[in-house]
Write a structure and sequence with these properties.
Length: 303
């Protein structure tokens, strides 16, 4: 039997063992749960349409490096169509504008994680708390579903193509093609003969064309000569016309001078006639008033 002192030692050992076991279990729970209190992380939110099988504690990678982990996954309070994922990135790790986040998978059946990728030229540094835009990706299951839908859409067309091929290769068409192939040499001979005849006709036409071109050249030469003669005659006619026009201008000037002189004479004659008419009117008026003055005109004073 153990004495009181031995019992105390056993109790102390059991307590220490229990404490160490609970401590190790707590550390495992913290590590497996993704709660690493000794890390200094900066948070960046990302909004995904779906998070697939993503859970907290999964790694955040950049170019294959582990740079953090997922801290929280919740429904976006601003827009319930999205899932808000809070990323914890190691402090002082540079993230630039143009970085996008997508959910990736290790292999074909591995765990999901968040992969950060810089697309295009890097912009300014992202401040902690800035939202990282999400890039839409498809996993193998979605690709398989899309491929199945595509096959379902393409299958009727493939069946139609197969039916058309069967109709094309029907016995009647095969017989027709065979008959055309058998008649092919004769068709080639006829084609060659037609080509030779066309060449001969073209050569004859070319010779005729040369003679016609010569005749046309002579005609053009004659026409050019006639045009030259007409041009000379026209030039002489223009010289004569200009001389006659100059003479006519001189005659017109002389006629204008004579007309002006005659006009002055006519105006003087008309003035004299006007004065004569006034004098006659005056005389007639006096004769009407004093007809005796015709017999005995009045004497002037002093006579």
């Amino acid at each position: 039997m153990l004495d009181e002192r031995g019992k105390k030692k056993e109790y102390v050992k059991a307590g220490i063992t229990l404490f160490l076991g609970l401590l190790i279990l707590s550390v495992f729970m913290v590590v497996l749960g993704g709660h690493w209190f000794w890390e200094k992380l900066e948070t960046y939110p990302v909004r995904f349409v779906t998070v697939k099988d993503l859970v907290t504690g999964r790694p955040v990678k950049y170019g294959g490096m582990d740079i953090g982990r997922i801290l929280n996954i919740e429904l976006d309070p601003a827009d319930p169509r999205y899932i808000r994922v809070t990323l914890g990135v190691k402090k002082d790790f540079p993230l630039y504008s143009g970085t996008k986040a997508r959910i990736s998978q290790k292999g074909l059946v591995g765990d999901y994680y968040v992969f950060l990728d810089l697309q295009g030229e890097p912009g300014p540094l992202l401040e902690p708390g800035s939202e990282i835009p999400a890039a839409r990706t498809m996993d193998m299951q979605e690709l398989a579903a899309v491929a199945g839908d595509l096959l379902a859409d393409v299958k009727p067309k493939i069946d139609e193509i197969a039916a058309n091929i069967d109709e094309l290769l029907s016995p009647e068409n095969v017989e027709m093609v065979g008959r055309m192939l058998r008649q092919g040499p004769a068709l080639l001979d006829d084609t060659k003969a037609a080509v030779e005849a066309f060449r001969r006709d073209w050569a004859a036409l070319a010779e005729k064309g040369q003679s016609v071109a010569g005749t046309l050249d002579k005609t053009l030469t004659r026409a050019e000569t006639a045009v030259g003669a007409v041009e000379d005659e026209l030039r002489k006619t223009l010289v004569d016309f200009r001389a006659e026009t100059s003479r006519a201008g001189k005659l017109a000037d002389e006629f204008r001078v004579n007309l002006n002189y005659d006009q002055d004479l006519v105006e003087e004659i008309l003035g004299n006639l006007n004065r004569t008419s006034r004098d006659l009117k005056d005389l007639m008026a006096r004769l009407k008033e004093r007809p005796w003055q015709v017999i005995r005109p009045p004497r002037e004073e002093g006579k």
